[in-house]
Amino acid sequence: MGAENTEGKIRVGVIGAGAISGIYLTNMIQHFPQLDVRAVSAGHIEHAQVKAAQFHIDACTTEELLRREDIDMVVVLTPVGTHYDLIRQALLAGKHVYTEKTLTDDPAKAAELLKLADERKLYLGSAPDTFLGPAWQTARKAIDEGMLGEIHSFAISGNRCNDILLSMFSFLRQPGAGILYDYAVYYMTALVSLLGPVARVAAVTGRPYPTHRNILPESPDFGKMMDTPNESQVSALLRLRSGVTGTLHIDADSAAQDQAYFTICGTKGILYLTDPNGFCGEIRFLPSMPKDFGHTEFTVLPQQTPKMENMRGIGPAEMADAILTGRKNRANKEMAYHVLEVLTAMLQGGEEGKFVDMVSTCERPEPMQEDLYGKLHS
């Protein structure tokens, strides 16, 4: 491949060839025309070679990928513990960077990366990008148009089944991959994108099961005990800078898988949202009770297109369009940093038994417009 750019495209190199890379590569190559995916690297070159052959791109080492002049943006799809070093190297190499969640496993490290990106005049974005999907943009539109009236509270409750996930994915047993950074990040990103930044938070966190038995028959470690040191339960109180208050409860030790409850309450009604780990799903509105206490019914709100069930990769695509047009990207580093600070404060508050005030803030990202969906997606 030559070093010349492809008009109207951002040339991409992917670092990481694990489980999540398949859907990213599929979507970035097939559905997002702003992206010209050229190469993939991995810690084990043979993993990169498998993905490269599947998607007809180059396989290389990470060092080679970062030296390539025909790559403008790096998409990092590795465990969170590796993010700081990889993002820093990519920024120093002059590449824009988009990373899977979270930005890093430590706000202090993340702050260094934000400063470096600003100094180098490079874009830095971070998942989750599910808030860019049609379900969440439908909710944003309802809020912005005043459907809920004056918003005063929210309630979030979700659960997972750690027995299965910890057996499937070894990275979840590594530091920084507890239920807050790995799963609550979806809820917090969606919340901040809809209602704005957090002012203070308090939480109770739990790690009731420091070991788990591997229950996956196809795993080489089937039947063995695994160290599982990360938090798996959290109950938090939050006050947003707007004055809106709410709760977040996540239980990863449940017997069921990813059951989500997410409501936003206002003077004119209640918005019932879907699982923020996805891009699509029903958004329902329940209007306020009539003064005569008559019957009210849910309304399912119509959604914007497209309706790809899994749109992972729209974050890099939207950032590529921002680079090409000179605007701020929506899944931006400031919001990612703020969400990371909030999640870290929950850990800190849980350990110290106190409210923690946020230092950072961020703006709500601009809503996705119908014409932008059409521009990004093919």
Description:
The protein has helices spanning 21-30, 45-55, 62-67, 83-92, 107-120, 134-144, 162-168, 179-195, 314-325, 333-352, 370-376; strands at residues 10-15, 35-41, 58-60, 73-76, 96-99, 124-126, 151-159, 198-206, 211-213, 225-227, 233-240, 245-251, 259-266, 269-272, 284-287, 299-300, 356-357. The chain has 378 residues and is of the alpha/beta class. The protein folds into 2 domains: 10-130 and 313-329 and 366-376, Rossmann fold, CATH 3.40.50; 137-311 and 338-357, Dihydrodipicolinate Reductase, domain 2. The strands form 3 sheets. The protein has a 9-stranded mixed sheet with strand order 16-15-14-13-7-12-11-8-17, with helices on one face. A 6-stranded parallel sheet has the order 3-2-1-4-5-6, sandwiched between helices. Strands 9-10 form a two-stranded antiparallel sheet. Helix 2 (45-55) links the parallel strand 2 and strand 3. Helix 6 (134-144) packs parallel to helix 8. It is globular.
- Rg over CA atoms, rounded to whole Å, is 21 Å
CATH fold annotation of the largest domain: Dihydrodipicolinate Reductase, domain 2
Let me know the CATH homologous superfamily of the largest domain.
Answer: Dihydrodipicolinate Reductase, domain 2
Strand order, sheet with most strands: 16-15-14-13-7-12-11-8-17
User: How helical, in percent, are the residues?
Assistant: 25-40%
What share of the residues does DSSP label as strand, in percent? 15-25%
Which regions are unreliable across 5 or more consecutive residues at pLDDT < 50? none
The overall number of domains is 2
Integer average pLDDT: 93
What class would the helix/strand composition place it in?
A: alpha/beta
In total, how many beta strands?
Answer: 17
What form results from the Cα inertia axes?
A: globular
SS field, number of helical segments: 11
CATH class of the largest domain: Alpha Beta
